[in-house]
């Protein structure tokens, strides 16, 4: 059994069954990092000594017969945004270069309590503000499928580390497809839960203890190499935590086992006015046909009558207002409070329209992004999609639509494009229905081929 490409479930079971020790599991992943990270540059702030101490304690607990958590002894990484006691949290921003939080965030606390062994952080875009993971502290992350191409952002280090066997899972953040886009580019799975489902407390470095400004559209969620692992990590980190008062007390639920013949799936090869590569839209149509042959009720989506460009612009405006509130000094001409409430009212229209759409569909199958992994470039450079130049800022549009509406969405690998790069497709569901959405993804997984290991790893 090659443990660096085992699922989290398999690795945890192997440790429980004493087929491998927690120290051996850690060493296997550290060896993979040593072999490949110099080229990929996904893993940063590696804590070898701290991880070894945690792994040794996990082995000792197993020897004593102590009660074990679902991640007992499993090594993992975290996107460099979570506050972690003893490990730097920098978000690739020089003023935070040496920041170490006094305590773990609630998400980190839960992963450690479940028995996980934190090895390191993974690379990000500076301040999580780009769709390539590059920053002045740690440099640029490359895609293991093709080092000349981006792993995406801002959770690019997480997706690249998973794809190359350096970690079994990670937890990213997603405000404009920042989990789903890198997952698609690297051929792994990524879940953006419903807004206010996973705690955002400690989800960004906060040396000064300032009031939290990011309260909308941003979500934390897992990245993994299987739907089963997504569900496992999601169930550990989701739900009220006593610190983030925005969290809804909605039951998390177990992932159901679903028969494809019971599913009602709408599919959209593209959205009006949003560009998409032909290989991606063809993958949507191909999977829809496979689902229909498997007995699912499939129909081409009649999307809500929304101006998606306006929704994306309004989402950007909301982000801008939140970022303005986070500045230590107010701007000379601050945004009027009335603009905030106007933006929220406009958002309500979109949320309710998508709620009505999902009254008659279990899920929507559609693209994650307009293209597969593109060559490294300067932010803002034009991106070529099927021979046509498209705006860089449209890269996350298919995903960002559901940050704006708050609906849960996941990225799942679905084969390769004509250039041999992973194609990721998006599955979107009802709000608060992550368990159902994951169940649908698991029912679909055999039709997609699931995670594929890059040739050089």
Report on the architecture of this protein.
This protein has 457 residues and is of the alpha+beta class. The protein has one domain (3-202, 212-448): Amidase signature (AS) domain (Amidase signature (AS) enzymes), CATH 3.90.1300. The protein contains twelve helices and 17 strands. Strand 6 and strand 7 form a beta hairpin. The model has no long low-confidence stretch (mean pLDDT 96).
Number of helices: 12
Please give the domain count.
1
Q: What is the CA–CA distance across the termini? A: 15 Å
Look at the structure and give the CATH class.
Alpha Beta
General shape: globular
Question: How is this fold's topology laid out?
Answer:
Layout: H1 8-16, H2 22-40, E1 43-44, H3 48-64, E2 75-79, H4 106-113, E3 117-122, E4 134-135, E5 139-140, E6 142-143, E7 146-150, H5 156-163, E8 169-174, H6 180-186, E9 189-192, E10 219-224, H7 227-237, E11 264-267, H8 278-293, E12 297-300, H9 308-326, H10 337-357, E13 363-367, E14 383-385, E15 388-390, H11 397-405, E16 409-416, E17 422-428, H12 434-448
């Amino acid at each position: 059994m090659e443990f660096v490409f085992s699922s989290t479930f398999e690795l945890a079971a192997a440790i429980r069954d004493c087929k491998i020790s927690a120290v051996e599991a850690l060493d296997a992943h550290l060896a993979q990092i040593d072999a490949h990270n110099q080229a990929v540059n996904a893993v940063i702030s590696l804590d070898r000594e701290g991880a070894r101490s945690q792994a040794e304690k996990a082995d000792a607990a197993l020897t004593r017969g102590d009660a074990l958590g679902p991640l007992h002894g499993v090594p993992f990484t975290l996107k460099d945004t979570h506050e972690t006691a003893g490990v730097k949290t920098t978000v690739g921003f020089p003023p935070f270069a040496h920041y170490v939080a006094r305590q773990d965030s609630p998400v980190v606390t839960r992963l450690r309590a479940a028995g996980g062994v934190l090895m390191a952080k993974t690379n990000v875009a500076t301040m999580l503000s780009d769709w390539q993971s590059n920053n002045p502290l740690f440099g640029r992350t490359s895609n293991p499928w093709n080092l000349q191409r981006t792993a995406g952002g801002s959770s690019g280090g997480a997706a690249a580390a998973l794809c190359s066997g350096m970690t079994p899972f990670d937890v990213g953040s997603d405000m404009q497809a920042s989990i789903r886009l890198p997952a698609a580019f690297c051929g792994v799975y990524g879940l953006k839960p419903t807004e206010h489902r996973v705690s955002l407390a400690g989800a960004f470095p906060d040396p000064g203890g300032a009031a939290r400004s990011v309260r909308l559209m941003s979500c934390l969620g897992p990245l993994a190499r299987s739907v089963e692992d997504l569900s496992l990590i999601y169930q550990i980190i989701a739900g009220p935590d006593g610190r983030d008062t925005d969290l809804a007390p909605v039951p998390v639920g177990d992932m159901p086992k679903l028969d494809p013949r019971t599913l009602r799936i709408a599919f959209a090869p593209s959205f009006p006015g949003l560009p998409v590569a032909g290989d991606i839209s063809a993958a949507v149509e191909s999977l829809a046909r496979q689902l229909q042959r498997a007995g699912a009720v499939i129909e081409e989506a009649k999307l809500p009558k929304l101006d998606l460009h306006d929704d994306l612009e309004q989402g950007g405006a909301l982000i801008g207002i939140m970022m303005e509130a986070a500045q230590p000094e107010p701007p000379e001409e601050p945004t009027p409070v009335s603009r905030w409430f106007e933006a929220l009212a406009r958002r309500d229209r979109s949320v309710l329209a998508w709620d009505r759409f999902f009254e008659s569909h279990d899920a929507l199958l559609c693209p994650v992004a307009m293209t597969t992994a593109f060559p490294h470039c300067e932010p803002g450079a034009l991106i070529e999609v099927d021979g046509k130049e498209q705006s860089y800022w449209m890269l996350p549009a298919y995903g960002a639509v559901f940050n704006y509406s708050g609906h849960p969405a996941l990225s799942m690998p679905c084969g390769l494009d004509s250039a041999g790069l992973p194609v990721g497709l998006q599955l979107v569901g009802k709000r608060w229905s992550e368990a159902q959405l994951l169940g649908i993804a698991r029912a679909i997984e055999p039709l997609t081929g699931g995670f594929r290991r890059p040739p050089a790893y």
